[in-house]
Design a protein that fits this description.
Layout: E1 4-10, E2 14-21, E3 26-33, H1 37-56, E4 64-68, E5 71-73, E6 78-80, H2 94-102, E7 106-110, H3 111-123, E8 128-133, E9 137-143, E10 146-147, H4 184-190, H5 198-207, H6 211-235, E11 239-243, H7 251-265, H8 269-273, E12 280-282, H9 289-297
Parallel strand pairs: 1-4, 4-7, 8-11, 11-12
Antiparallel strand pairs: 1-2, 2-3, 5-6, 8-9, 9-10
Helix pairs in contact: 1-2, 3-9, 5-6, 6-7
Protein name: ROK family protein
Pfam families: ROK
Family: Belongs to the ROK (NagC/XylR) family.
Length: about 300
């Protein structure tokens, strides 16, 4: 096996590990349920890494890239406020702790930023916004080839732009944030669906002509379109890629958001001239964009 890179995408429910070669091809893939808490996260990551070693039969001595939710200090390889993982309070020095267990260097990045790097690799574009529609709503920005984190690490936190003063209280403490309209958790609240993922259930019901489902879908799509519009007007990227758990819908999601963008631009020649709908794409449902991006960190 030639030169390879290892990436771990640590999420609230699962940790996905990949071995990716220099051409971007996936050579091995392992997924395990994530154990909660600092020790659980470390144990899960180590288990996935050892399983990748076993599957490839390779030593995997290069640096491991890790994408993880929360506030990440990339210089120190530390994370905090990864609430869904049970990592709260003080900084968890994940990079050092994991490097000790694995015996290789570890590079840590916020999961959305890691996925943004994966979107760059996937699209070949180096000027893009990656909009992650998962439990929350957040964007990664690569502008002219450079990742923009922001002075406080808050670049792309578009989900916390308030758009409805009469809206529901957001986790962040503000009221009526975009995230309360245009996220996986907002969909789950608006369209409870039992065992089926809410986004799949909602779009299927809307496709079947359920008028309430059509209204809920269109409000959601308009919220995502508003996030796209804000990002495009702020940094004017060449392309906008939709990702995150809800993006597993694939083309129906892109079409719904593109339609909402066209409606929003109908009364504005200025907006229409920007062709936001035409700049939109969606991550293929079988492409593990965050884990691929994490693997690129280790190069």
């Amino acid at each position: 096996m030639g030169p390879v890179n290892v990436g771990l995408d640590i999420g609230a429910t699962k940790t996905l590990g990949l071995v990716v070669d220099d051409a971007g091809a996936i050579r091995a893939e392992v997924r395990e349920p994530t154990e909660p808490g600092a020790e659980g996260v470390l144990r899960t990551a180590a288990r996935v890494f050892e399983a990748l070693r076993a599957e490839t039969g390779a030593e995997l001595t290069g640096a491991v890239g890790v994408g993880i939710p929360g506030l990440v200090d990339t210089e120190r390889g530390a994370v905090k406020h990864a609430v869904n993982l049970g990592v709260n309070g003080d900084w968890l020095h994940l990079g050092d702790l994991l490097a000790d267990r694995l015996g290789v260097p570890v590079v840590v990045e916020n999961d959305v930023n890691a996925a943004t790097r994966g979107a760059v690799a996937m699209s070949g574009e180096d000027d893009l916004v990656y909009l992650s529609i998962g439990t929350g709503l957040a964007a990664g920005l690569v502008l002219e080839g450079r990742l923009r984190r922001g002075d406080h690490g808050a670049a792309g936190e578009v989900g916390h732009i308030p758009v409805d003063p009469n809206g529901v209280q957001c986790e962040c403490g503000q009221r009526g944030c975009l995230e309360t309209i245009a996220s996986g958790s907002a969909l789950a609240a608006a369209w409870p669906s039992g065992d089926v993922p809410p986004a799949q259930a909602l779009f299927a019901a809307a496709r079947a002509g359920d008028t309430k489902a059509v209204a809920v879908r269109d409000r959601f799509a308009a919220g995502v379109a508003s996030a796209v519009r804000v990002l495009a007007l702020a940094v004017d990227p060449r392309t906008i890629v939709l990702g995150g758990g809800v993006a597993h819908l694939g083309e129906p999601l892109r079409v719904a958001v593109a339609d909402a963008l066209l409606q929003q631009a109908a009364s504005s020649p200025f907006l229409a001239s920007l062709d936001l709908a035409g700049r939109l794409s969606v991550v293929p449902s079988d492409y593990p964009v965050a884990a691929v991006g994490a693997a690129m960190l280790g190069r």
